[in-house]
Amino acid sequence: MESIISFIVVFGALVFFHELGHLLLAKRAGILCREFAIGFGPKVFSVKKKETVYTVRLLPLGGFVRMAGEDPEMIELKRGQIVGLLLDGDGRVEKIIVNHKDDYPNARIIEVEDADLEHGMYVTGYVDGERLERFAIKEPAFFVADRQEIQIAPYHRQFAAKTLGQRTMTILAGPLANFVLALVVFILIGLLQGYPVDKPVIGELTPDGAARAAGLKQGDEVVAINGERVDTWTEIVNTIRSHPQETLQFQIRRDGKDMTVAVTPEAKTIQGETIGLIGVYQPMEKSVFGSVKQGLTETYYWTREIVAGLGQLITGQFHLDMLSGPVGIAVSTGKVAESGIYYLMKWGAILSINLGIINLLPLPALDGGRLLFFAIEAVRGKPVDRQKEGMVHFIGFALLMLLMLVVTWNDIQKFFL
């Protein structure tokens, strides 16, 4: 249960910030965002704020921002259709009532002759079956069907109406938000826990290590080992690792006083190699500037490592059965959570970078796939046919779901069978 909760919290946060990136840039571009959802499937919770419905759905495996115009608008009026119109004080349409018109006794009943809900923003119809009138539609206005209100999206509020640059930034904002989230988390870890520094200073000691038994203390500055000067933590580690079960004379400076401490590293065999260990962690420091620098370094390092891993997958050096899906990530998240909050935060940051990179891949149904179509549009000077693009994304999504099933089955066999 702890593993499941940890996974939901971590993955939910990653999805939330990814979709928040899309939402903020879409709203900035003036796009009508109908829904901001975390998860898929049936709604568990929903609340409407201004134009957008914010929902939490049952399956915590992703999320989405439903933007007007991304899919064909389902709102339409046909000639001869009987509808009710709610008008404001200036005679402009505020709501178009499709059914259950008895719920609105003040509605003006008309037989539709013509309507344009995107460009002209009007509806004409026969009142009392005789008089033809034209009604302007105000902004915002709503289409009411089965007692559910759907905001009418004029063309200028739709995704497709925006410039190529605005659409590109709206889609790109999701993956970028994941990189920003990772950077912020790494900076927070540095501010709260500290960040490792390559200085010749003894860090935290393990309870049963050789260093504690010999009398070393956290904060001791190591001047030399066996008479050889050391200037970095890396030099200390290399010296200890290369002298298992050999007594080393540590010349240290403690509280301004110099002293010598004899330490015998314990021998431990790792992957066939015997090395020395004394039970000391790398020294840590805390500062705003250092935390920001460490955050940038960590973000760059893990970005490079994940990209390299994807390169190995493409070249066949990394096999498909080595991938993990939601089940594998949930199990790993639970194990990391047992190690403490800072390890969980770091794990979440790494997953956030991974999510950002995966979404940038030029594959159908991913953000990168949509950006690829935008690049084609920039070269051609006109957008790709929406139906053809939609079919490509649909096929890509189906293949992606198939891959997810395969990876999930591998995870189940690996961890539970």
From TrEMBL:
Query: Which cofactors must be present for this protein to function?
Result: Zn(2+)
Reported EC number(s) for this entry are: 3.4.24.-
Pfam families hit by this protein: PDZ_6 (PF17820), Peptidase_M50 (PF02163)
Tell me where it mainly resides. Answer: membrane
Q: Which InterPro entries match?
A: PDZ (IPR001478), PDZ_6 (IPR041489), PDZ_sf (IPR036034), Pept_M50_Zn (IPR004387), Peptidase_M50 (IPR008915)
Gene3D superfamilies named among the record's database cross-references: 2.30.42.10
Q: Which residues cross the membrane?
A: 6-25, 171-192, 341-361, 390-409
An MF annotation (GO) of this entry:
peptidase activity
Record's SUPFAM superfamilies? Answer: PDZ domain-like
Topology relative to the membrane, per the entry?
Multi-pass membrane protein
What the entry lists under PROSITE patterns is as follows: PDZ
Q: Which residues form the PDZ domain?
A: 194-267
Q: List where in the cell it is found.
A: Membrane
Print the keywords alphabetically: Hydrolase, Membrane, Metal-binding, Metalloprotease, Protease, Transmembrane, Transmembrane helix, Zinc
Q: What SMART domains does this protein map onto?
A: PDZ
GO annotation, biological process? proteolysis
Which family does the similarity line name? Belongs to the peptidase M50B family.
PANTHER family attached here?
MEMBRANE METALLOPROTEASE ARASP2, CHLOROPLASTIC-RELATED (PTHR42837:SF2), REGULATOR OF SIGMA-E PROTEASE RSEP (PTHR42837)
Stated name of the protein: Zinc metalloprotease
Q: Which organism is it from?
A: Geobacillus icigianus
